[in-house]
Amino acid sequence: MLTVSIDFKSPASYLALRPTLNLAQETGVEIDWLPFSVRPFSVPEERPDETVGDRHRRVRAIAQRDTHLHYAAVQGLQMCFSDAPAGSDHALAAMAGIEGNPIPFIQTAFDAYWIEQADLNDESVVASLLASLDMVVPDPQSAHAKLMTSRKKAEEMGVFESPSYIIADQLFLGREHLPWIRSLI
Predict the structure, then answer these.
(1) What pTM, to 2 d.p., does this model score?
(2) The domain 2-184 belongs to what CATH superfamily?
(3) How would you write the pLDDT of the chain (185 residues) with one tens digit per residue?
(4) How far is Cα 35 from Cα 132, in angstroms, rounded to an integer?
C-alpha cells in the first residue's frame, strides 16, 4: 500500500498525479489517497521598499513557478497560475467523503483548479464537479470531519507538505522520489 497526500492547490501535487498513477498501474500497488491542505503557492509582488530577503523570496518563487511550468509542458499539461490563488478545502473534504474510487474526482478537481482556475473552496463548484462525474455529493459536515481525521492521520505519519508518499513506514516528499519508491515496491 502506498499512501499519497495531495492538495489540489499544490502545483507539485498536480504534477505528481500522472507519474503516481503510472507507477500504480505499472506495479499494481494500491494507493490510499489522503487529502492534505497546504498553503497556496503565490509569487509575492515586487515592492519598491522590498528587503533583500523579500526580493530573494520573490525571485525564488518565480523560479519555482517557472520550473513547475516547465515540468507541466514536459508532461503535456496545461497549468495556469493565478495572481489570487483560490482555496481547496471543500474539494479536499469531498475527496475525503467519497466512497469508492476517488481518482476521477481527483483528476477533475486538479484540472478545474490548474486549467480553469476554479475555486475549489466553493461548495457549488465542488458539487458541479461531482455531478459531472455522476458522483454523490458527500454530506458536508461528515466530509469535513473526515478531512480533519485525514489531516491528523497524515500529520501523525510526519506529513507536512504535498505531495507526500508513505510506503513501508518511510516518508518521501515530492515526486522526485518515485524511482526510489518503485524500488521499494
Answers:
(1) 0.91
(2) Glutaredoxin (3.40.30.10)
(3) 999 999 999 999 999 999 999 999 999 999 999 999 998 888 888 889 999 998 999 999 999 999 999 999 999 999 999 888 889 999 999 999 998 899 999 999 999 999 999 999 999 999 999 999 999 888 888 888 988 998 898 899 899 999 999 998 899 999 999 999 999 99
(4) 21
Residue boundaries of the structural domains of the chain: 2-184
